[in-house]
């Protein structure tokens, strides 16, 4: 398959690209390459896109609340800011199309019940009606771009594809390219094989990318220093509002780093009032092996101390363990690549420990790949 210009002249061969991971970095890269007319196939371990920007549906199913309605929590990324002109332009587009909205908080710095204004004057945005709206939108754009090949219907009819529930196993290089093997999490079939690819983009947290690279890859050593810390995220839903004066708080002098009233974000249900509590990476690492009950008990006590208030019994509470949550010390390289082996690695940890970092890294991975393809053609 080739990529053609609007005038119909052949520019270069369309490459077959496997992208592992459908978080923001993987999807940004996929959309860019699809727009350029490449043959993109995404593989995602979970049943949905979004990775650490996902939201989770919880069913309060205990005791008297057996028939209670399900509640949604944005249990990963809480909001995002746009510091670069390029990402600000993307955010404007999402805003214009109703994919994101500004979240006005209010935001505070919180010390044992005392609120102060937080430092800085960041404008914070969230996906609507959930944080996952952003990645769902990118997926839709990617598949559309792939099906019409950058607006030229003659250049190929191969739609960009995505395979869900595909836990990709260590990469194998054969003579003609990369072979993707994965365990199908839904069916339980292991080592399912999928096509041959010219390029592989690993849009994954660094420890996972490391585990998928062939043992002799020089990238293993390059990415090894960039570790991610865990987060033991707690979700609580209350029948009645806690009537606190803020939507999001940066907590001081506490094992907690961040607490937010999820229901104060735009287009979320107001009742029950849903709260998200994020302890620090250090505390999460130290308590990673503790029981759910022990973690919930300690985080609840820290929440009460932070807001200087005794909490009512929540209608619902649960713990979610994010193993690779936040990069401890991100790289400044945008992405990593082995152009000889045709492997590129992307993710927030390559740029910045934030949503914007994941977006920039996905873009840079796509640009590096297309520059190299131009050189090789
Ligand atoms: C608790 C928490 C709070 C955060 N708060 C904020 C915040 O307030 N503001 C902010 O800007 N950022 C925040 N972040 C960071 C933000 O979520 C990330 O920077 C961003 O989502 C990273 O995107 P990514 O595409 O690089 O990685 P990911 O989102 O991790 O995407 C990787 C994808 O790869 C998939 N995958 C993994 N292994 C395999 C495999 N073997 N085969 C196939 N697929 C696989 C995963 O399921 C996932 O979908 C937070 C993160 C967490 C966890």
Q: Using the coordinates above, name the CATH class of the largest domain.
A: Alpha Beta
CATH superfamily of the largest domain: FAD/NAD(P)-binding domain
**Unique bound compounds:** flavin-adenine dinucleotide
**Rg from C-alpha positions?**
22 Å
Biggest sheet: strand arrangement: 9-8-18-19-20-17-21
* Estimated share of beta-strand residues: 25-35%
User: On the 0-100 scale, what is the average pLDDT?
Assistant: 91
Q: Identify the CATH architecture of the largest domain.
A: 3-Layer(bba) Sandwich
- The tally of strands reads 23
Uncertain parts: 5-10, 148-157
CATH topology of the largest domain: FAD/NAD(P)-binding domain
Compute the number of structural domains. Answer: 2
Query: Structural class, from helix and strand content?
Result: alpha+beta
**Mass-distribution shape:** globular
Q: What fraction, in percent, of the residue positions are helical?
A: 25-40%
Major sheet summary line = 7 strands, mixed
Number of helices: 8
Distance between the termini: 14 Å
Question: How is the secondary structure organized here?
Answer:
Blueprint: E1 2-4, E2 10-13, E3 16-20, H1 24-35, E4 39-43, E5 56-58, E6 71-73, H2 85-96, E7 100-102, E8 107-111, E9 114-116, E10 125-127, H3 133-148, E11 161-163, E12 166-168, E13 172-174, E14 177-184, E15 192-197, E16 199-203, H4 206-212, H5 219-223, E17 228-238, E18 248-251, E19 256-261, E20 273-279, H6 281-286, H7 292-307, E21 316-327, E22 336-338, E23 343-346, H8 355-376
Parallel strand pairs: 3-4, 3-16, 4-11, 8-18, 16-23
Antiparallel strand pairs: 1-2, 5-6, 7-10, 8-9, 12-14, 13-14, 14-15, 17-20, 17-21, 18-19, 19-20, 22-23
Helix pairs in contact: 1-3, 1-8
């Amino acid at each position: 398959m080739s990529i053609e210009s609007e005038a119909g002249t052949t520019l270069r061969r369309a490459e077959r690209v496997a992208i592992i991971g459908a978080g923001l970095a993987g999807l940004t890269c996929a959309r860019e390459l699809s727009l350029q007319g490449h043959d993109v196939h995404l593989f995602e371990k979970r049943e949905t896109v979004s990775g650490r920007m996902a939201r989770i549906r919880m069913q309060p199913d205990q005791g008297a609340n057996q028939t209670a309605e399900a509640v949604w929590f944005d249990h990963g990324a809480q909001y995002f800011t746009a510091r670069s002109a390029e990402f600000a332009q993307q955010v404007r587009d999402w805003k214009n199309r109703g994919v994101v909205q500004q979240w006005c908080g209010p935001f505070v710095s919180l010390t044992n019940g005392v609120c102060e204004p937080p430092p800085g004057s960041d404008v914070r945005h969230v996906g609507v009606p959930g944080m996952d709206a952003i990645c769902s939108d990118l997926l839709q754009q990617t598949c559309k771009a792939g099906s019409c090949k950058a607006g030229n219907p003659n250049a190929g009819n191969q739609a960009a594809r995505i395979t869900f529930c595909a836990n990709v196993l260590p990469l194998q290089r054969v003579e003609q390219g990369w072979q993707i093997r994965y365990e199908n999490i839904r069916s339980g079939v292991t080592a399912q094989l999928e096509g041959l690819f010219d390029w592989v983009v690993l849009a994954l947290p660094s420890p996972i990318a490391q585990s998928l690279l062939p043992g002799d890859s020089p990238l293993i050593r390059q990415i090894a220093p960039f570790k991610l810390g865990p987060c033991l995220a707690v979700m609580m839903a209350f029948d009645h509002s806690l009537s606190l004066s803020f939507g999001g708080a940066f907590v001081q002098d506490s094992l907690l780093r961040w607490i937010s009233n999820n229901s104060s974000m735009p287009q979320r249900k107001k009742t029950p009032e849903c709260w998200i509590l994020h302890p620090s990476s250090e505390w999460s690492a130290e308590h990673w092996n503790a029981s759910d009950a022990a973690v919930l008990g300690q985080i609840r006590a820290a929440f009460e101390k932070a807001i200087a208030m005794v909490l009512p019994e929540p209608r619902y509470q649960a713990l979610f363990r994010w193993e690779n949550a936040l990069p401890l010390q991100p790289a400044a390289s945008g992405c990593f690549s082995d152009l000889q082996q045709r492997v590129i690695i992307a993710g927030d940890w390559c740029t910045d420990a934030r949503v914007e970092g994941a977006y920039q890294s996905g873009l840079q991975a796509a640009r590096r790949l297309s520059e190299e393809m131009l050189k090789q053609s």
